[in-house]
Amino acid sequence: MSEPVEDINAEHQKVGSRLAEAIRDVKNAVADRDDVVVDIREAQRTRLELLADDLKPVFADVDEDDERFDFAISAGAQPRLWIDSVAHVTMGRDRRTYRFLRDTRLGRVVLAESSDIKKVADQVTRYIAERVIERRRMLEGEVTPLDPRLYDKEKKGSSVLRGLGIILLGGLVGVAVILMLSWPQVADMLGRSF
Q: By the 8 A CB rule, do 33 and 99 touch?
């Protein structure tokens, strides 16, 4: 026996309405989560804008010809206050801690981390001052070598002689060790020759 068509349609409509209700509930939950995520991003952006406001006098003092600095808040999943192309301030996981970070060849370095906006602003100011001084020294032609001994001309000649002396001494020590280890064979050969 087959069921009446009306019973199947009624049953299908109940299942369909349950599915429609479930879909509606899921959509509401997703919308609520999206609202929370948007609110969190806005809160992070607002905190970064407060830091940028504190730093406005510092940003204004930087020479306009110095193109290395960005001083902009980027949008996205993680808002950031960019200082230059490698340094930025972002909010920590707790959404209250400012993290001043710098990207290096060896990875990301934390320059400052605090929930106190003043401490982070001071570190950013110091970083900007260091970059400004670095640029001035470069423009003035004041080059500071990484290892001054490499560029000391008076010591350069003596270091070459010292290096040759070490090589010669190493060779003599090597010959002495070989003679000592093979002395029985050398004495035997010398005894046969004479």
A: no
H-helix or E-strand containing 108? strand 107-114
Structure-token pair, residue 8? 């199947």
Query: Cβ of 166: how many Cβ atoms within 10 Å?
Result: 10
CA distances to 165, 169, 176, 181, 183 from 172, in Å:
11, 5, 6, 14, 16
DSSP β-bridge partners for residue 112? 100
pTM: 0.56
Cα separation of the two ends of the chain? 125
Put residue 53 in one of left, alpha, beta given phi > 0 → left and psi -120 to 50 → alpha.
alpha
Per DSSP, what are the bridge partners of residue 73?
81
Which H or E element spans position 49?
helix 5-61
Q: Which two tokens stand for residue 113?
A: 């981390």
Residues 10-37 pLDDT 10s: 555 555 578 888 887 787 776 666 656 6
pLDDT tens per residue, range 34-78: 656 667 778 888 889 999 999 999 999 988 878 888 888 998 788
